Amino acid sequence: MLRKDQRKSLRPTADAAEVARFNALAEEWWKPSGAFKVVHEFNAARLSYLSEQLPALHGRRRTSDAPLAGLRLLDAGCGAGLVAEPMARLGAEVIGIDASERNVSVARLHAEQSGLDIDYRHALPEDLHSDESTFDIVLSLEVVEHVSDVSAFFTAVGRLVKPGGVLVIGTLNRTPQSYIKAIIGAEYVLGWLPRGTHAWTKFVTPAEVVRHLAPIDFDEIDLKGVSLNPFGFRWSVGSDTSVNYLHVHRRRPATE
User: What's the predicted TM-score (pTM) here?
Assistant: First the structure.
């Protein structure tokens, strides 16, 4: 358990303007043709990767009925549960936290309607600080680019991963390609996302993720891009990390 002085040292990571933005959009999450339509399509590719890799990283077979059974999983920045629900269906014990109270309310209602037992909380990573709040898997997907303090955020989520556990960061790379595609293209030309959803200056490179996580006992184990094929308009996971990427890290086992 973290000491009281250690808990005080965790700087708040929520950005008030970003929270307000997502509060206003909370009702749109589960509408297939709503403001987050492109997120649903993007999410399908991301979930395909996670559904294969997470069981494998814990020595499980994906072909079993519940390959994540017995594992505790935290979805940090869960939104309305687009990832938390599929992870629960894979058998994980899922806790989802989000800075937007309206997101949490929408997530709870949808999980209840879907017959899923997911513990959703209106909380930030730094709010979870007991020994019981450590996890085999921590997911932080499309969150880092919205926080107020990147360093504090990585410290907060890193402390929630058990030694030997896995942390998955999904975010946007800070490259010329991401500015053109994710902001100019997605927000202003094609209207796939509401204007102002992202600020390019807040995007984080894979090298920066490594730099934040290495000092707190994490090793990089996989890096994949999530990209859109402009001909078939299908998202896939591959080697192109110039815009979106998934970055997997394992916390080093505790030494005796």
Answer: 0.85
